[in-house]
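Reading a protein record of the kind used here takes little practice once its layout is understood. An example of such a record is reproduced below.
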Amino acid sequence: MTATAPQPVRVQVPPRSLRHDLRAVKIVFHREVLRFVSERMRVISSLIQPVLWLLVLGTGLSSLMATGGGDGVDLKTFIFPGVCAMTVMFTAMFSAASIVWDREFGFLREMLVAPVSRGAIVIGKCLGGAFVATAQGVVIVALAGLVGVPYHPALMLTLVGELFLGAFALTAFGVLLAARITNMQSFFAVMQMAMMPMLFLSGALYPLSGLPAWLGVLTKLNPLTYAVDPMRQAVFSRLQLPPELERAFNAGVTWNGWPVPVWLQLLMVAAMGLGLLGLAIVQFRRGD
């Protein structure tokens, strides 16, 4: 009998469509959440530092203010919005670091050759990182009562919404950084170089009023400033403070004497997040 030649197996790759891209966004988002939940040490370690800043540093600064005649102002209350922003910043940037990790182990290449848009992968990554970072921030928000911030439902919802907006922009920034970096050591070096100036120039740990002119300019150029100030405005709107203390500790952001409204600051953060997302998508489409 004559052996029959095996028939070739045809593999049909489904065409790209919006439905497939949305499914890819969902899968990448789900993967980010599962990775976060499974790494308990990461959850614990990322919460220790903000809690130390809030309770230890805040208590020390409050004692110093009381000694210097700053009665009526609890520094733990003042730095609370900044610590919330710091929490989502660290978590968002660490979420973006997983891109470099996936590249080193070859998993990223498998994702990029899938029959879906690379933009869908980036969007899922940014949404997943923002969700995880916001979940971390919610834990800090839950400590509000310990630092003199009232548990008002509208305030809590406002803070969570602003945290998510800032987390999305920060995750997009981290993804943009990770798009061209090939090893973890380089990414963490660049991340530290970017994060620390952003944190200390955002007004998270000290009032923006009364700063030297050169430092005031740097705070206005810092994107994180426009994520921290709306949260501080929301917190101070629920406190009863004398006008002089309100002006000293909640002066807000001003451009040449004009107070920047909260809605414009949030719009700027959203625009920066979408702009960074677009740049990250362009970088991934150019990469391998």
Q: What stands out?
A: The longest strand covers residues 254-255. The chain has eleven helices and two strands. The first helix runs from residue 18 to 38. Strands lie at 254-255, 258-259.
